[in-house]
């Protein structure tokens, strides 16, 4: 599906999911989430979210811990001759261990991972190999192999001999033993008499005093450095060999990260589903849309956080009998919010996310959701509001078909009302002939009677409480709305004599129309 995500504010859903993810790869997937390539893929994520939610609500899990990003390490392992750092292997080990621990959860709830639980531990036999040669901090173990054991034994013996030989030089006031790399030196304080025959190795720690390497220990220090160098070469050989082991399991490591990404996204989607009291929509092939008692996700969250009023449910039915709704009513009635709610929930369903709907939720296989909301004028390209809307309509008319869902706000505005209404009628007639589905909002009175007489259009309105002069935000299908501009103007405090004069002019206009 292609969709105009920006005007639907889908980025807000992505941010919510990203915050709920535990891994960097899951967070990346949330940031880049979009409609699935097919309805089948959307259903797979729906099923995974449903399984994850069932596990979370039952207390069985799974719950992903925070994990390091190992994708760069896996890319490095793929290069022949690479020697991955020990810390990177330790991060890999952590991810491998989590994958192994998650397999029983997925085996119990197969819907969690459509590619199968086996992918979670396909490379798990790398774990004992890592543990055999690396310390928990990523350093190569001294007993990583026989050669290393021998070298470390030699290194310790040489250091002990050097330390014993150093004792005779540490009797001077303030003299201390200091290791500069693998070279033993005497640290003498500033102003100390240089009574040690040897090589100056610079200043001491923090720039205080100076370092002297006694002449008789130069050869011993050379041997010590050589042994340390041999150890480092052997460490690198071990890391290269371990990297070779990782390369042999490259596909398994890639599958593990892909599986964890999917699970992280599914678990985050399950948490969002719980927060929104949402559920999976029924995905069907026909271009239909049924949303009963639907809510805009952001309004639900704002109410839960006491940042907004309790949202009102919206019910919409779009099908072969009611292909295009023409929604009219006052500015404060919630027409734009209803469009955004329908569009956002449709896109969420095609992404595989659960949607906040109290009743039935059925979403058709729309290949395109086309949205025109807000003011499309552009200073840079010298487009007026009307010209901007015309450009949008050109794109729509070029691509729309029976699997297109349109959401057009204030169709026909920005020019003379009569010309705008005439253009809107022609556009709606053309779209109806193509079998397009959707919702259109307008203030243009002629469109109400046009929709009432058109076989593919249905009037709808946002219900308004005429006694309290307040919107109810409920959609009524089959009933055109009243603009109530003068009623609302009077309520908002415009002078009564001015409003009465406006009513007189309105009657005059109706008589001449």
UniProtKB/TrEMBL annotation:
One of its GO terms (molecular function) is mismatched DNA binding. Residues 322-507 form the DNA mismatch repair proteins mutS family domain. It comes from the Bacteria. SUPFAM superfamilies: DNA repair protein MutS, domain III, P-loop containing nucleoside triphosphate hydrolases. One of its GO terms (biological process) is mismatch repair. InterPro entries: DNA_mismatch_repair_MutS_C, DNA_mismatch_repair_MutS_core, DNA_mismatch_repair_MutS_sf, MutS, MutS2, P-loop_NTPase. The keyword Nucleotide-binding applies. Keywords: ATP-binding, DNA-binding, Nucleotide-binding. The keyword Protease does not apply. Residues 11-302 form the DNA mismatch repair protein MutS core domain. NCBIfam families: mutS2. This is DNA mismatch repair protein MutS.
């Amino acid at each position: 599906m292609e969709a105009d995500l920006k005007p639907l504010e889908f980025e807000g859903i992505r941010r919510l999911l990203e915050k709920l993810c535990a891994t960097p790869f899951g967070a990346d997937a949330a940031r880049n989430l979009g409609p699935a390539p097919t309805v089948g893929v959307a259903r797979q994520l729906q099923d995974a979210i449903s399984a994850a939610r069932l596990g979370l609500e039952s207390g069985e899990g799974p719950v992903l811990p925070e994990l390091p990003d190992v994708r760069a390490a896996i890319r490095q392992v793929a290069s022949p001759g690479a020697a991955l750092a020990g810390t990177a292997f330790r991060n890999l080990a952590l991810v491998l261990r989590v994958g192994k621990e998650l397999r029983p959860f997925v085996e119990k709830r197969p819907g969690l991972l459509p590619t199968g639980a086996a992918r979670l531990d396909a490379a798990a036999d790398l774990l004992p190999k890592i543990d055999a040669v690396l310390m928990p901090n990523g350093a190569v173990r001294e007993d990583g192999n026989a050669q290393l054991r021998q070298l470390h034994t030699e290194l310790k013996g040489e250091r002990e001999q050097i330390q014993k030989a150093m004792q005779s030089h540490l009797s001077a006031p303030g003299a201390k033993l200091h290791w500069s790399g693998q070279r033993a030196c005497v640290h003498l304080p500033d102003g100390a008499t240089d009574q040690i025959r040897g090589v100056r190795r610079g200043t001491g720690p923090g720039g205080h005093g100076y370092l002297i390497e006694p002449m008789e220990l130069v050869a011993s220090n050379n041997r010590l450095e050589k042994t340390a160098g041999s150890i480092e070469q052997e460490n690198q050989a071990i890391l290269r060999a371990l990297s070779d082991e990782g390369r042999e399991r490259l596909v398994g490591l890639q599958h593990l990260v892909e599986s964890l990404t999917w699970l992280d996204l599914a678990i985050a989607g399950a948490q969002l589903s719980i927060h929104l009291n949402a559920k999976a929509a029924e995905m069907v092939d026909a271009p239909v849309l049924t949303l009963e008692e639907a809510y805009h996700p952001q309004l639900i969250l704002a109410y839960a956080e006491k940042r907004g009023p309790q949202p009102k449910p919206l019910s919409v039915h779009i099908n072969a009998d009611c292909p295009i709704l023409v929604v009219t009513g006052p500015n404060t009635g919630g027409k734009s919010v209803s469009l955004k709610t329908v569009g956002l929930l449709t896109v969420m369903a095609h992404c595989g996310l659960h949607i906040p709907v109290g009743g039935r939720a059925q979403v058709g296989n729309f290949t395109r959701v086309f949205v025109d909301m807000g003011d499309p004028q552009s200073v840079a390209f010298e487009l007026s509001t009307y010209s901007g809307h015309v450009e949008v309509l050109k794109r729509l008319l070029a691509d729309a078909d029976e699997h297109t869902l349109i959401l057009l706000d204030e169709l026909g505005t920005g020019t003379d009302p009569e010309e705008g209404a005439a253009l809107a009628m022609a556009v709606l007639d053309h779209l109806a002939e193509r079998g397009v589905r959707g919702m259109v909002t307008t203030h243009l009175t002629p469109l109400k009677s046009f929709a009432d007489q058109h076989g593919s259009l249905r009037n709808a309105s946002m219900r308004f409480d005429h006694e309290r002069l307040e919107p109810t935000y409920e959609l009524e299908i089959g009933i055109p709305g009243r603009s109530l501009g003068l009623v609302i103007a009077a309520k908002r405090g415009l002078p009564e004599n001015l409003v009465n004069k406006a009513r007189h002019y309105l009657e005059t206009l109706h008589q001449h129309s």
